[in-house]
Specification:
This protein has one domain: Gcn5-related N-acetyltransferase (GNAT) (Aminopeptidase). It is of the alpha+beta class. A seven-stranded mixed β-sheet has the order 1-2-3-4-5-7-6, with helices on both faces. The chain is globular, with a radius of gyration of 16 Å.
Length: 168
Amino acid sequence: MIALRDFTQNDMGNLVTILNDAAVTQFLSPKIPFPYTTEDALWWVEEGSRGDLTKAISVDGQLVGCIGVTRGDYEYQKSGEIGSWIAREYWRKGIAGSAIQQITDVVFSGTDIVRLFATVFSGNIASMRLLLKSGFTQEAVLQKAIFKNGQYFDSHIFAKLRPLNNTE
């Protein structure tokens, strides 16, 4: 069963293993340390993942990934940026799609966020396809907007809007 839950101390070993796989971190923000240490995992479990909308993705209780939504500030307070990663051995098994659907349902039914968006590195075709399949629309391509490891990437912007009712 695919579930979203809080991170626990029991996830630390899997965090270190998964986030030391260069294929997993290739298109992730360099805010995630590489190599990823036990100390990084401890900080993540105890502090970094403690936001309301940051969740571990588990399959039958085992950590296989992470998904989260970061709310915007000030005039962007009704928008949230969604991001995720999945262990390589769980790619293309429907897990990421299920996690996106679950977090989208939580955000649109339990918060006042009306716009979810994702920024995807050029070259990350699998994530682009997944977002389209999950009901997101591609809005823009920002050329050379991302710089990581000495290389420029275009940033592909995808969004999904919560249907508004007549009172909003």
